[in-house]
Write a structure and sequence with these properties.
- It is a single chain.
- The protein has about 240 residues and is of the alpha/beta class.
- Helix content is about 35%, strand content about 25%.
- The protein contains eight helices and twelve strands.
- Strands 3-2-1-11-12-9 form a six-stranded mixed β-sheet. Strands 4-5-6-10-7-8 form a six-stranded mixed β-sheet, covered by helices on one side.
- A hairpin with a 2-residue loop joins strand 4 and strand 5 (about 110-115).
- Helix 7 (about 220-230) runs antiparallel to helix 8.
- The chain is globular and about 50 Å long.
- It starts with a strand and ends with a helix.
- The structure holds zinc ion.
- Zinc ion binds near residues 8, 10, 37, 62 and 151.
- Zinc ion binds near residues 64 and 151.
Length: about 240
């Protein structure tokens, strides 16, 4: 089975469509899974939510999904994120907000635990260093854990009760008999100084994850954000991939 692993779409329809087209054309996928933050920041929350609900078999909630749905407060968001979140809430219907409210914070599929942030804190923790990885390896029971939230593609490996970050990240990573925490990067707002949309394909036969990066029409997304009156910083950062 081949699975497209998507995270942090953030209402960016151009990036999402580029990723879905790539996954379909590149040997195809049997399923897609989403690690949350479908909405927030970007100009197309409705279309992105519809696409994710249609295409993704498993979806967990991100902090932006929960804030847009009113499940968590905006107090922990910075000004630009809060403004975009309020704008997003207003675009979504009662039914769409109910879909977001109902998303699970954690789910399990085959060998994987799926969360947005981390097993320790599914909504808020940025799992970006070895100390956090070491602590989190004891917080899930499956061989592998998929996380999003940091918008940076990363893989941590556990061996002999120690954690290490896999650096440099290979294009294709063999998941041999160790445990891994895997972040596919962000579809709609990458922050690793590479503006291309990021996602991964898991191949259960080969036992591999492959990192895929796609150029998309950033200008179109930015023009929609400008027309919607979304904050300038959020518009500019798409070009810089930060
Ligand atoms: Zn996010």
């Amino acid at each position: 089975m081949r699975v497209a692993i998507l995270a942090d779409i953030h209402g960016n329809l151009e990036a999402l469509e580029a990723v879905l087209a790539d996954a379909a054309g590149y040997g195809g996928v049997d399923e897609s899974w989403c690690l949350g933050d479908i909405v927030g920041y970007g100009p197309d929350p409705t279309a992105c939510l519809a696409s994710v609900l249609e295409k993704c078999r498993y979806v967990v909630a991100g902090n932006h999904d929960m804030a847009a749905a009113g499940v968590i407060a905006l107090a922990d968001f910075n000004d630009d994120a809060a403004k975009a979140c309020l704008w997003t809430s207003k675009q979504l219907s009662h039914k769409e907000l109910t879909h977001l409210k109902k998303l699970e914070m954690e789910t399990w599929v085959d060998d994987f635990t799926l969360v947005h942030g981390s097993p320790k804190d599914p909504i808020w923790e940025y799992l970006v260093n070895v100390d956090a990885a070491r602590e989190n390896f004891s917080r899930f029971e499956t061989p592998y854990c998929l996380v999003g939230h940091s918008h940076v593609p990363l893989i941590f490996e556990e061996a002999h009760n120690r954690a290490r970050m896999v650096v440099p990240l290979p294009a294709v990573m063999k998941l041999h008999d160790k445990r891994f925490i895997i972040n596919p990067g962000s579809v709609g707002q990458p922050r690793d100084r590479d503006s291309r949309a990021s996602y991964m394909i898991y191949d259960s036969t080969e036992k591999t994850v492959e990192l895929r990066r796609l150029s998309y029409n950033i200008t179109m997304t930015q023009e929609k954000m400008t027309a919607a009156g979304l904050p300038q910083y959020l518009i500019k950062r798409l070009t810089r991939g930060i």
